[in-house]
Design a protein that fits this description.
- This protein has 362 residues and is an alpha/beta fold.
- The protein is built from eleven helices and 20 strands.
- The strands form three sheets. Strands 1, 11, 14, 15, 16, 17, 18, 19 and 20 form a nine-stranded mixed sheet that branches. Strands 2, 3, 4, 5, 6, 7, 8, 9 and 10 form a nine-stranded parallel sheet that branches. A two-stranded antiparallel sheet has the order 12-13.
- The longest helix has 15 residues.
Amino acid sequence: MESMSAPRSRAWVEVSLAAVVDNARTVARTAGTRLLPIVKANAYGLGAVPVSRALEAVDPWGYGVATVEEGAELRAAGIARPVLVLLAATPELFAEYRAARLTPVFDSAAALAAWLDGGGDAPFHLEIDTGMARGGVRWDDMAQVARLIDTPRFEGAFTQFHSAECADGSVRRQLERYRTALAALPRPPRLRHVANSAAALTEPAAAFDLVRPGVFLYGGSPGGGIAAGRAVVSMRARVVSVRRVHRGDTVSYNARWTAPRDTTIATLGIGYADGVQPALGGSESRGTVLLGGTRRPIVGTVTMDLIMVDAGDLPVRVGEIATLLGEADGQSLTLTEVSQASGVQPRGLTTALGRRLPRLYE
């Protein structure tokens, strides 16, 4: 692993690829079927290429991305397995799909007909809307694509659960609609996949041929009381300034925090442009960091490049490392904890990690 104790950067992210692989194995073991890991949005902010290369160890069927550009990035890095582009394909991008050997998804008869008219034997997947109302052909309107589906190029059909983490009966209803839709087609797909992280871990009936884990791979909880995956990401920053303030002094923009006593303020070289959520600071000081072996509150407005921490009487020095997420000195700040403090879902926290933060991998 690259040195974690003294990287030159003012702030950085550490990613445990071993933990990603371990989480993937947990999903595969629980679901009992192959994986289609979701590595869109740069693998939830952690690096699509290194994450996908690491996941080769679990023999996934392929990888799921959101855009043609994301798929082309994997191909350029030498990823040879199928790459499914989950956003519905449109004809103006067909040449790019074919050039990068990407598998398209369709949710309209017109676009699907255009793909088939283009010839070749490239496969495709059909998205079925069973209640998400975001994309896909409605489960009760399969007639519009039935004729076009009768081809060996029809490889897969999937749907998206809207509340798989909730015990509200919606998964059962959506599964019924999904099966109704498949029964209306002239031929079955070779691959059926419906389960996200939550469903893959809790709904055996949703396993089918593939499951599509996302947030759990990256150490997050899918919600609904489902345990988080093994911790994957840590976020650290250096102290770039130390100053003593007096009782009554204000800190940061809009003077939203006033020192209740004489104290030391440690400024860290990281801010909202790097993914620190603004709600962690302000007057309420919801967020904390691990500094000097203790938890210390983030105080004042989170700024673009810097945050301030109330270090109390700690003997803080410039260059010292603070942890905003992860383990340090036998303590930890978990993704779930930071999510609760910020009001942002775990997947939102990792995808918000700034591009200028170096990613250090095991």
